[in-house]
Specification:
This protein is α/β, with parallel strands linked by helices. It is built from 10 helices and 8 strands. Phosphoenolpyruvate binds next to strand 8.
């Protein structure tokens, strides 16, 4: 069985280093007994340096990177820079970035840069809506195939695939809840796609997680019945008690 992972995506929150420090520290102090679950917090870039000094138990993740390694790329942050700061994981292909124009071809280059920098990529995939003819499976297949294009098969299991149906994410207007069955169905499908791209063994060894308004109320349902190795939480990760409850649920399963 793959190790469970709980990831918090803080997005563009909180507004000050003081608040970031408080949120991170209050999560860190409540998880001293957690042994089996990997914990990751992805704060805004500017808080990474400070937060890495606060806990050994919580791994640091970034919310994005750039594909170039060094040079004239105003406003960008490279994978190697993140690695040098102690970052172990980085989210790429989040739907909020895809909505700003990021495409699979860009995500593919970012994945390659992260793998070269020895950072674990968290690749977000997911359809914006569901349709009766099940076209959404093709949407997810295309995202995975294009994002993983040209990546050495043996590196695929180093990538975490986060299934995030956009229609379930808390920031989506008129969002609706996804069920553990939705997650299970898609995680089986994602593994089938990975198996076609690489091998069944590589697909089995690749962590697939669920994200989309996961809370302390439904985390158990997703972790037990959603066919996933962990969860990615946005809004709930901004409240230390809720995030810690999700971690403890993962730990108890
Ligand atoms: C996300 O956008 O990555 C996410 C999981 O957000 P939320 O939990 O707030 O839906």
């Amino acid at each position: 069985m793959l190790k469970k992972i709980v990831i918090g995506n803080w997005k563009m929150n909180p507004v000050s280093l003081k608040d970031a420090d408080k949120l991170f520290s209050s999560a860190a102090k409540s998880i001293s007994k957690v042994r089996k679950t990997e914990i990751v917090i992805c704060p805004p870039f500017i808080y990474l340096e400070r937060l890495r000094k606060l806990s050994k138990k919580i791994n640091l993740g970034a919310q994005d990177t750039f594909w170039g390694d060094v040079g004239a790329f105003t406003g960008e942050v490279s994978a190697e820079m993140l690695y040098n700061l102690g970052v172990k994981y980085t989210i790429v292909g989040h739907s909020e970035r895809r909505a700003l124009g990021e495409e699979n071809i860009d995500i593919n280059k970012k994945l390659k840069a992260l793998l070269s920098a020895r950072i674990t990529p968290i690749l977000c995939v997911g359809e914006t809506s569901r349709d009766e003819s099940h076209e959404y499976f093709n949407v997810v297949r295309t995202q995975i195939k294009e994002c993983l294009s040209g990546i050495n098969k043996n590196l695929i299991s180093k990538i975490i695939i986060a299934y995030e149906p956009v229609w379930a994410i808390s920031s989506t207007p008129n969002r609706r809840d996804a069920t553990a069955l939705d997650s299970r169905e898609m995680s089986v499908f994602i593994r089938k796609v990975l198996s076609d791209i690489a091998t069944p063994a590589i697909a089995k060894d690749t962590r697939v997680i669920y994200g989309g308004s996961v809370s302390e109320r439904d985390a158990e349902e997703f972790l037990r019945y959603g066919g996933v190795d962990g969860v990615l939480s946005g809004r709930a990760s901004l409240t230390a008690e809720k995030f810690v409850k999700i971690i403890k649920i993962a730990e108890s399963i």
